Amino acid sequence: MAEMSAEKSHPVPKEMQEFSKVHAPIGSGYSLGITCLTPRMKEREWSTERKAINRRRLMENRVNKKAPLFAEDLIREEIAKKPEYFEGLSAHDEAHERVLKEMEEIYEHWKKNLGKLFVYE
Question: Which pTM does this prediction carry?
Fold first, then answer.
């Protein structure tokens, strides 16, 4: 297996073309995959307060549609079951941040090694 980073909208580098002709000719069962190297777009982050407001609103709308007579009790029960969730906290926030950091490190690695061919045996 081999990989190389190249700038977006540029032709496949000559080194990669030559490598694929020798090691992955047509019919060999191997292929040449291309991934564009683009920086990650910044996500729009919601504040904890905004998440809490939105989560409560959506839950209240669902409950009011399905059981308007018992809505107040059901809403109270739902909030009591998952208080952190309805306060805007998420269990996956740390994992999400870790994944984004790893993606940023991978991008920086390929950006630094632009045009270098890596061959793995």
Answer: 0.49
